[in-house]
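Schema walk-through. Below, the input block comes first and the output block second. Nothing else is stored per chain. Lengths vary across the set, and this one has 102 residues.
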Amino acid sequence: QTIDAESAATSIDSARTVMGGLCKHSIELWLLFIRKRTWDASRAAAVEIAIPPPPPGYTPGVAQVSVIHQQYEESLRSAYRQRIDLIREKVTQAYETALEFG
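--- output ---
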């Protein structure tokens, strides 16, 4: 069974699945720790991986025919992928810490 780290970080049932043998209050404390680390990772990713400014004439949500606009959209996708990867890594580390010390 695979567990999505971001949704598990906000669900007590998912946390119980991951951290089976712990008491309820202990799970809730570790879940709070994981949520905090998730928020921190999200903020750090937003600071560390900047979103490039749009080129002149760019309209979001409209099919772009300009090569510059297409390159911009690809750079946006790349930045968001990098942010997601960074957040996933930090959340995974938080779960590993909770499992190790919990």
